[in-house]
Design brief:
single chain; alpha+beta; eight-stranded antiparallel β-barrel; Lipocalin; 18% helix; 2 helices; 136 residues
Length: 136
Amino acid sequence: MLTFGRFLILSTATLALAACGKKEEAPVAAPSDAVVATDAAVAAAAGPTPGVYEVSDASGKKVSTVTIGPDGSYAQDPASGMRMAGIVKMVDGKTCFDPSGKAEAECYTDSARAADGSFTATDAKGAVLTVHPKAK
């Protein structure tokens, strides 16, 4: 039978032995030059930027105006057709517009932004759209 005194002696001895053990520290990785965050990468990771955008097709014809709200909502006013609205979010590095209702989400791979804020957005079928922030 283990008495309180023996328990205390065994516990103290165990703690003393544990304290004598050499603790190995995990190596600290040095920063890599290969991993450099750019402003464009940070902005892409943060998600779509709220604002009003004019969208043109490959021929330069305006196809719609898209307004993105700070809450992740969007409204798309096509040059012809009915307004669509829903939420916009980043999914697997792509900007995805998920309309309210039964329509499926459409995702685009965005290029880096140019100095004027414009960029291209390529859909799953390879169609390229040019997106320009609308002047305030």
